[in-house]
Amino acid sequence: MAIMKVSRRSALLLAGGALAAPRIADAQANARTLRFVPQANLSNIDPVWSTAVVVRNHGLMIYDTLYGLGADFRPRPQMAAGHEITEEGRRWTITLRPGLRFHDGAPVTARDCVASIQRWAKRDVLGQRLDGLMDGIAALDDSRFEIRLKKAWPGLAFALGKPSANICAIMPERVARTDPFTQITDYTGSGPFRFRQDLFRPGDRMIYERFAGYAPRSEPADFLAGGKQVHFDRVEWIVMPDPSTASAALQNNEVDWWETPLPDLLPLLRRNREIQTDLVNTAGNLGVLRFNFLQPPFDNPAIRRAVLPAVDQRAFMNAAIGTDPALSTIPAGVFTPGTPLANDEGLSVLSGPRDLEAARRALREAGYRGERVVLLSATDLPVLQNLAEVAADMLRRIGFNVDLQAMDWGTHIQRRTNRGPVDAGGWSAFCTTWEGLDVSVPGSHMPIRGNGTNAWAGWPTLPRLEELREAWFEATDLAAEQAIAREIQRVTWQEVPFIPLGQVLPLMAYRRSITGVVKGGPALFWGVRRA
C-alpha cells in the first residue's frame, strides 16, 4: 500500500502535473516562505508522548523550553529569566522572563510550567530522574515556581533544556494536564512558530506561521540558546517519501531544504551549483538493533547474545549511508564515537572477526525453537529501511525465522507500543537511530535503561544498568564518569538491551539562497534567511 502511494505521488510531482503546479508557483512567488522536506511524515504531534526525531523537530518549532543549550552544549536560560539555587542545591526557584505568551494570546505562567514539567517527567529519561528526586514542585506566583529535590542535582537545567527527545515543551496548563501516556489534541505553544492545525494534511504537508507575539531573547542566537529571530512568515513541511522526488524538487527550486538526502543522490546534488550539502548534526546518529524483552525469543539473554558474533557494522553502515567513510564511523560501542565516554571495553565482540557459524552454534545452544521473529521496517526512512534489510538477512543466515514487516514510519512508531505477542500485533525487533547527543551520556541514553515498563520500547528490566546509571549521576569528575561508562558497556554486552550498528553522519541539502543554517543538531528555522 505504501509503495503504491509513493509511486503515484512521485509520478505526479515529477510530471509537473496541473494539480501540483499552482502550489509550487504560489510558494515561489512568496519569498517569505521556507519549503522544507522533513525526514518523515508527522503522524503524531506530541513531543512528550513520542521519542521520534521528527516529532521532536516539530516540537522545537512551536514550543519553547525553560533553558536552551548553546553550541557548547551548556544550558542557558531561555524562557527562564534565571534561577536561584538554595538549601545546598535542593531547592531551585525559577523566574520566567516577562512578555511570554501562548499562541492563543494567554500569558505563560508558572502554573503552566509546573504542569508541563510534571507531564514530561513521566515520559522522558531525564524527566524520570527528576520525578524520582522531586520532593515537590509548586507555583509561587505567576512568574516564579520552585522545584524541591531530595538531594542536589546540578544537571537539572540541562534536563529541562536538552533538545533531545523527549523535550520539556512548555504547554498551557489545560493541555499539560493530559495523561502523559495519552497524546494531546491541542497544539497551542509559545514558540516562534504557530502550528496551523486547520491546514494539517498528514502524509502531505504541515504549515507553520511566524508567531507575531513571540518575544525572543536579546542575546544572539547560539544553537538553542539566545534569541530565536524568525525571518520567514511561513514554513511548509512537504512530505516526500520518495528520494528521487525530493531530489528533483530541490534541484528544480520547488523546495528549499531536504533534511535527509539519500546517499546515492549526493554526487548529483553536489554537481548542482545552487545546492549546498553539509554536515549539520556533527554528533550524528547511532544506529541500533532493539529487542523486545517481553516476548520470545528475545526475552532470553542467551539468544540476544547469540546475535553479536554475526553483526557486521560496516555492512550496516554501507547500506544505511553509503560506502563513503566520511559518512559513518565504526566500530561504535554503547556511547557516541568521538565523545568523552566512548570506550573500547569489550568492543571486540563487534570489532573482531565476524563468525556466522559461532552465532548459529550459540543460537542452538541458547534453545531457540524457531519462533517467528517480527522485524519492523520503516519504508519512508531509507536509512532505517536499509538497516532493517541487513538485519533481516543477518538474522535469517544464523537461523532465525524472520518475518520482515514493512510500513511507514508513523505506523512503525505506533506499532512498537504494542507489548503483546507477534500473533496479536506485537513485534520482536526493529532498527532505528538515536541522536548522538542523546546516547553520549548515561543520563539520556534510553537504549540502556533497564526500568521495565517505564523503559523505552522493548521494556527491559536490568537492575545493574540502572545502578550504574545512578552512579554516573553521582560521579565527581570525568575520570569517574569514564570508569562507569566502561562498566556500562561491559554489562551491555552481557544483557544486550540493544546492539550498536555504527555511527551515521547524515548530510542535509539546501539551496545556497538559504543562509544562516544553525549547526550542531537538528534542522532549526530561526536565524535562517533567504539571500
Automatic annotation (TrEMBL):
GO BP term (any one): peptide transport
What subcellular compartments does it reside in? Answer: Periplasm
Q: Does the keyword Hydrolase apply?
A: no
Signal peptide range: 1-20
User: What Gene Ontology terms describe what this protein does at the molecular function level?
Assistant: peptide transmembrane transporter activity
Annotated keywords: Signal
Which InterPro entries does the entry mention? Peptide/Ni-bd, SBP_5, SBP_5_dom
**What's one Pfam family here?**
SBP_bac_5
| CDD domains the UniProt entry points to | PBP2_NikA_DppA_OppA_like_16
> What is stated as this protein's family in its record?
Belongs to the bacterial solute-binding protein 5 family.
The protein's name: Peptide/nickel transport system substrate-binding protein
Q: Which organism is it from?
A: Falsiroseomonas stagni DSM 19981
